[in-house]
Design a protein that fits this description.
globular, TIM Barrel, 49% helix, 9-stranded parallel sheet, 11 helices
Length: 255
């Protein structure tokens, strides 16, 4: 089942889906599995597995440090794909690769798509790859039924959103505010206006990320977005309070 069909199926019983995020190998693959078990118990629908990279340009300080620590610990791309295979076979949520184009470029686009498919990944998010330079990768992805998740931002013109919408498949990642991940986003008219603008240019489901951290944020997005994307807030809780804290965080978030 492809990403868009999976989201449609899950939305039959849930008004707003949740996509969560872990950085592969941080703090360790063992702790990643603990986090994912808690997410699965809570009913998370999708998870981004971030392949660590030395210059994660879309990420805020917490994720930058997590990427650095994972790389220092020796995490490799091969380990990330092995982990994805293990996760996609074990859990009910769907798995996407999140990372940066250098990882794809070094192994070759065709190899990347095949390895992602074989590991059970349904899509990927590459925030530093412009759609103008993604034509070949997107064609290979279409052949393999793997979805490229396009980012739409508040600073994009309508002309640009039309270009992004034409390339979108599976789902769109609507970036709730300017800047990098990690800071709190004030949920208000600007976010709704962005979602409305995105919907004018694509028919695929829309997830909203950057700064989603509370049940109030979730309640605000219901009826506007299809998915809430939760990253930094969950990692922060894990670092502060471990498994018990993360279990409580997702229980409250998805109550």
């Amino acid at each position: 089942m492809g990403l868009e069909a999976f989201i449609a199926e899950r939305k039959k019983s849930k008004e707003l889906l949740v996509m969560a995020h872990v950085v592969c190998g941080y703090p360790s693959f063992e702790e990643n599995l603990q986090e994912l078990e808690i997410m699965a118990e809570a009913g998370v629908d999708l998870v981004e597995l971030q392949f660590p990279f030395s210059e994660p340009s879309a990420d805020g300080p917490l994720f930058v440090r997590a990427n650095e620590q994972s790389l220092k610990a020796g995490t490799t791309v091969d380990q990330c794909f092995d982990f994805m295979r293990q996760v996609s076979a074990r859990f009910p949520f769907k798995v996407l690769m999140m990372g940066y184009y250098n990882t794809v470029f070094k192994m070759g686009e065709d190899v990347f798509v095949q390895r992602l498919k074989e590991a059970g990944g349904v899509g990927y998010i590459l925030p530093d790859l412009p759609v103008e330079e993604a034509e070949n990768l997107h064609a290979l992805s279409a052949e393999a039924d793997v979805e490229p998740v396009i980012l739409m931002t508040p600073t994009s013109s309508d002309k640009r959103l039309a270009q992004l919408g034409a390339a979108s498949r599976g789902m769109v990642y609507a970036v709730a505010r300017k800047g990098v991940t990690g800071s709190k986003t004030d949920m208000g008219d600007d976010v709704v206006a962005l979602i409305d603008r995105c919907r004018q240019h694509t028919d695929v489901p829309i997830g909203v990320g950057f700064g989603i951290s509370s049940k109030a944020d979730m309640d605000f997005l219901k009826g506007s977005a299809d998915l809430a994307i939760v990253g930094t807030a969950a990692l922060k809780i894990w670092e502060q309070s471990g498994a018990e804290g993360l279990r409580g965080f997702f229980a409250e978030l998805m109550a």
